[in-house]
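Q: Give me the 3D complex with adenosine-5'-triphosphate.
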Amino acid sequence: MGTASSPAPPSPGSALRSRLVRTAALAFRASPFALAVMVLAALVAGAAPTGMAFYARRVLDGVARGDRRVVLASILVEAVLLFLTYLVGGLHQFASARLRLALGFRLQRAILEKAIGVPYACFEDAGFYDALTRARREAVSRPVALLAGFFAMAQALVVLAGSAVLLFQFSPLCALAILLAALPSFLTETRFAAAVFRLQNRRATEAREQAYFEQVLTRDDHAKEVRLFGTGPTFLARAERVFSLVFDEDQSLARKRLLVGLGADLVALGLFYSVYVYVALRALALELTVGDLGLALVTFKQGDGALKQALGGLRGLYMDQQYLGNLYGFLDLPVPPRKDLLLAAPARDEKGLRFENVGFTYPGSKRPALAGVDFFLPPGKKLALVGENGSGKSTILKLVAGLYEPTTGRVLLDGKDLAAWDPDALRARLAVVFQDFVRYQLTVRENVAPRADEAPVSDERMARALARSEASPVVGRLAGGLEQRLGKWFPGGVELSGGEWQKLALARAFLREDADLLLFDEPTAAIDPAAEAALFERVRAETEGRMALLVSHRFSTVRLADEILVMEGGRAIERGDHEALLAAKGRYATLFHLQASGYR
Ligand SMILES: Nc1ncnc2c1ncn2[C@@H]1O[C@H](COP(=O)(O)OP(=O)(O)OP(=O)(O)O)[C@@H](O)[C@H]1O
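A: Here is the predicted complex, encoded as structure tokens.
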């Protein structure tokens, strides 16, 4: 999923333009009112200084002429204009806060919808996961910041244009000089902002690495190991190493920017003051009034302030647009369309689950995780998968669950390729417990029945699921019963042991009473071996007529299955029931005796 982590970098200028247009369109849809207020505020706040400079001149000329009426009226107009700027400043703040909420909410929603829609494989891809995290982080603040930066720049340009118009009356050259004064600063700033942009693009991996080390040091689920293995200082040092590399590069660029920026400032200063001297000399020659001189003075001050504001806006724009690149890059990730399912007729006339010469290689991996796996699980039968770590057991379950599609061969359920199954229909057939099951920081009831869109679950059905997973005594001990909040994230939550959580995850699977294909990936690793065997015995009795695929490292459980598939290096090397496999004295027998001797 390289698209998410490292999109081919477009030129900074064209990227900025397209992201600006996209953000404005999104903002318009989220809150046209707020966007209109921001545009209006920028125009008014940009035009007001020109008006104020104009009336400042009238005040000075009025004083020189002794015209009291003009002086007072002009001061009044100036005050009104200033008040207007305050007013639109306040309105701008109000509108941008509103837009921030409205747009942030829409974008967060779009991100979450995208996260639900993409194939599961994305979540095992570090690049995708990273893109998701960054997109979520940026969604609320960056789009509005980008627009605010743009409006700040637009406002400053209106001020500069106003200054040019006012100075035009002294000489067109003066107007030109004011506009030209801004040019070097603009050009250098654009160049450096683009350089920062490229630098940060190039350093994306280092930045991720630094963030990773920071996460390791601050996350609750890492804190235990960090303390007990004493890895804190090591990771801190690694984070610092990345930091100092980044720091040095940034500093060197910042030094260059400072020097070139000072040069550009000097040009602006020279041009401003040339115009100032020109106006002053003409005033001395009595060709211009004191008011004219005052006007020039005010115009320079405003022009200088506007220039600084425009440059700040430009710098912010480049910064924000880069972050928006993450956000839009994520939102643009393709979601595969649903397949046309009507055409798919069963390939075989049979009931049950069949692996036909299945091979599978994880995306981005070179080594196949499965190769040439064949088996058939008839309806009602239980198949256990055993084998060493990494032999491909969980991968088989992931293929059956439809989380991945085989690279070669096919998986058939009731004779029909899984790829041709309607995802909802397939989901309804499955009940799954994975090794890394979820611990919802919600109530017991919500842990067992988390879907709000399904029919309400009766207490009897809930009790049956809890009983099947041996979770009834756990719930019985909780003060709040089914309504007890679990986990420590929220007030009033109660933490459970690993085994207790696992029993609830099992109950979640057992609640799906219509599912006839149960997938258990070491569902009981945190439960003691005796309890596990008892549990499986019970599951077997209670799921009569339903198929089950069970991964377990415990032979006390495995031996209870109807059939056992022994995996090694992605291949199924032995198959049969417990007795037959022992008699064959192969890999299974070796593993079994090895474990049995450990218990003696
Ligand atoms: N998401 C993934 N991306 C790339 N390779 C993976 C991924 N998950 C597993 N693998 C690789 O696929 C192979 C089979 O992994 P699998 O998880 O199926 O083994 P397993 O038999 O269930 O192991 P365990 O007993 O440790 O749970 C391993 O070599 C593993 O490194």
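A quick observation: Residues 1-7 have pLDDT under 50 and may be disordered.
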